[in-house]
Amino acid sequence: MQVMKWSALALAVTAGTTQLAFASAQSESKGFVEDSSFDIFNRALYMNRDFKHGYSNVSPANKVKGDRTGYREETGLGIRLLFESGFTQGTVGVGFDAHSLTNIKIDSGRGRHSNSMFATTDDGRADDTTTEVGGAVKFRISDTVLKYGNQFVASPVFSTDDSRVLPEVATGTYLVSNEIEGLELSAGRFTAMNSQTNTWNDSINGRGDDGKKAPGLTSADIVGASYAFTDNLSGSVHASDVEDYWKKYYGNLNYTLPLAEEQSLNFDFNIYKTDYENDYSNDEFDDNTVWSLATAYSLGAHKFTVAYQRSSGDAGYAYGVDGNGTVWLHNSVQISDFVGEDEKSWQVRYDLDMASYGVPGLSFMTRYITGEDITIAGTNEEGKEHEWNAEAKYVIQEGAAKDLSFRLCHAVHRANTVENGANYTDLNDTRLIVEYPLDVL
């Protein structure tokens, strides 16, 4: 499944912020009620995918009467109610988190459905509305938090995706410890993953190399460690064992070199090593290694980035049953991941923050990625692909609508083969995302 993904660095910052929020010192607890919060997060998403060369707008497994080719166009509204309690006072703090996720169809149709935004009814239409509720109990000792139940996870080897109207939700146990300053240790075991469209438990299925459905998530065991060596240098290592699918190992190094006032140079390196299980690969491939290195030069309101990514081994990089956000690589962008077998890809990117020019909250981004040398199984042909992205975002800074944001994203993807990690060749993708967070408590 191809999904919209944000930068690996942004995801890392999000993960760290979330985990540290759970891991505040137990000795400073004010109580279950006193430290509780209740937020409402609203997201409206319009998504249009224009497939070139007549590619079907409905996957072959969902073909129904009225299927058309050429495009998918849908609009939906997601409403998230998020309650997070504080911890009870004492040596062991106890708390509880709960959420309600409601997906409302605003516009869709049987002939233009299947953007992974809504569940599909028996007659092939988008479901009008779905609601999912869940919760998790949590315990804290000192700066260590253990959480069990339904939760959103942001680990490089197990990451729930949030690229549509609603996020994926994982079920399991997650431990995060920040006992040593600068060092974060994590471990978890997850036994189910709910998709962004279906409310029934463990609704994400894997997919084998033959394209047939494989069993969903049975279990995923993960461990990780992140350490800030200095204010400018940090690193992390993570590993996972997903039953019947693969074992993954991940590493990251990030270094920022200050140059002058409002100038800096950042280097960010990410690498995955994946060993596939025989039941998943049918003995046709065994492993993959993919890495990316990005160098970003910041000059006031401007940031210029160059990234290189390379995939090698017996197959491309695979993910999904362990979360559709589990691809923390620089060239994983709006449409493609650029992780095909033996693929090499380059990216150039430019970011502009208009706050320096008197328009706080307004920002722009554009990037271009090109990939080549993709091995096509059973042929002598080498696959190629390229993608261009452009994005504009504005966040209202004050007043009654403070924090209301508008984001317009457009992507153009072209390829010479359907075997390069995507099930299409040429595609234009346009999205308008409106988000409005409300802090009720």
Automatic annotation (TrEMBL):
Signal peptide positions on this chain: 1-23
Keyword Transmembrane appears in the UniProt entry: no
Gene responsible for this protein: oprD
Transmembrane segments annotated in the record for this chain: none
Keywords: Signal, Transport
Native species: Aquipseudomonas alcaligenes (Pseudomonas alcaligenes)
GO molecular function: porin activity
A Pfam family per the record: OprD
UniProt-listed InterPro entries: OM_porin_bac (IPR005318), Porin_dom_sf (IPR023614)
Taxonomy of the source species: Bacteria, Pseudomonadati, Pseudomonadota, Gammaproteobacteria, Pseudomonadales
Protein name per the record: Porin D
Domain of life: Bacteria
A GO cellular-component term linked to this record: membrane
Family that this chain belongs to: Belongs to the outer membrane porin (Opr) (TC 1.B.25) family.
